[in-house]
Description:
By secondary structure, chain A is an alpha+beta fold. Chain A contains 10 helices and 12 strands.
Amino acid sequence: METIRKLIRKQSLEKLYNNLAANRKVYAPVIAADKKAEYKYNPGFADVTFDHIRSTLSVKNIVFPKVENLFFYENSKTESTITDIDLDKIPEVVLWGAHPCDNAAFDTLRSIFCWDTKDEFFSRRLEKLTVIGLGCHSSDEYCFCTSVGLSPSSSRGSDILLTKLQTGDYQAEILTAKGNEIVSSFPDLFEPLTDEKVDITEVKQKFSHKQVTEKLAGAFEHEFWIANSLRCIGCGACAYVCPTCACFDIQDETKGKNGKRYRSWDSCGFGLFTLHTSGHNPRHVQSQRWRQRIMHKFSYMPDRNESLGCVGCGRCSSGCPVDMNIAEQLEALQNI
Amino acid sequence: MDNLILRAKELLENKTVQVVIGYEAGPTGVVRPAFISDPANADSLIYDERCVQNLAVYLTKPEVKHLGRIAIVSSLPVMRSIMMLISEQQISYDEIVVLGISADGVLLDIADLSVMQGYIDKSDLSNPVKYKELLAELKKLTPAEKFEYWQKELSKCIKCYACRQACPMCYCTRCTVEVNQPQWISVQSNAHGNMEWHILRAMHLAGRCISCGECGRACPVGIPCHLLTMHLTDQVYNYFKVYAGTSEKMNSVMSTYEPNDKESFIV
Ligand code: SF4
Ligand code: SF4
Ligand code: SF4
Ligand code: SF4
Ligand code: SF4
């Protein structure tokens, strides 16, 4: 659909939020006790922040929860009875105030989860999601959306994109039918847009992702990987906070006769991730795992999924205990 | 700091070691571990109050061992970790050179294991002051309040295992959480699975934790999981009068039996 731009005043935003939160799950950012931003379901409007830069965790858990039950089972001596999950029970969710990088990541995740076989759990959750994004009026040294084809005002992944105007009111870009449905339910809250001066931060481009992708094609055996990954301790922090990392583990948990099969987040940074039953591990040292992380996002995915595997949110770097700064490494890789 | 750089250069130039593990400031100013193999790069080494990571975690990694003999910048927690790793036969003192740093940031002359032992012996080995205060606060809570506090904190856990990976004493190539035949603890990250993980981790570190605080610092969601192991450090001291990482010959209190062990905690 064609994008429509409207004005929504600050007071009307509160009404919109309260109306949505009255009968839907609304996932919105608040400032937690440790001063960092985190998303919560249906917080009071007064607590919702419009000024955060980066929440510690991404919002991917809406469509890819850290634990997703796949089915339940009951074992008898002779057989197992399986009970499927009722996917119709997946609730509608409105994501409120998430930034362009996080919203674009839903697209990236879709390119993974629906690459050939459509993942039912993921797709049904995505269908039930409406995204009211928020363009960024602030950023920090970890942000690099502009190096991966996005920007503080990109609308990819949003159904409605709010952008602060210099007057303090907001511009609402209505981008999809889902977005339009919300706007048409509350016509009184939206006005024609007259003043278009928006308050958007500037994010300097650090590298060209096209050049990085080209360089990576011949860099598998480069000494870069060992030299730049010795300090990586091989935890799952970067993958778990990342909005586009999609690896999961599948486990059964049984208690007595009853149990369930579920999937939970996993990371290619773990040594065990590629360990074969034979004992052989094709990625037996951290440099190979770090290479996989970068290759997957900047070489294999553009190749196979026609999508970069990174939206430049900077979470992996700000959350890494040993400052494995991905943008710094990509900048260096561009020039090897 | 100049002394540290000079010493690092000297060790690399005369090939006593092949790599120096220390700290540097990255391009964004964040302090991080540095692996220096070329003496010309030793100038980037720094040491100040921002250098808190416990570098001993690297000593058991095959790719780091592979580099050759290692010199390692070592504050007291790193030295105690080294002592712990030697006592658990994970490393031998011959593989490393300890570039000891005193509490006020001065390069120490740690000529051999006995000098390091001497330095540890005369240091205060109880939990660092800032953690003591937090532990004292927690102690004031009733058991029900404590349980509620930890349930709330642990509900944030995403099981990324950064706490485990950051700890020099969590060197197991296959952690108990990763064994699934049989499955010892619930792998899922929910209230139940998170609690089991943290009880397991704390118990495996009882009497082995050297109070560096690294696990809590590494946690991306800010769970003070170091307070669990540090509390056990206090408990172990109360019962057995030992601190971890104090002797190359020490036996882990939790896996050895002495006839004069107090048994009052057995119910
Ligand atoms: S890059 Fe950082 S966060 Fe990622 S596995 Fe390595 S140490 Fe952990
Ligand atoms: S790789 Fe890092 S910067 Fe890129 S999307 Fe993931 S967390 Fe964000
Ligand atoms: S580092 Fe934090 S989030 Fe990760 S497993 Fe440990 S306590 Fe949980
Ligand atoms: S404080 Fe944490 S990281 Fe340090 S030794 Fe104890 S358990 Fe390990
Ligand atoms: S938690 Fe226990 S089993 Fe796991 S790595 Fe640490 S010491 Fe080993």
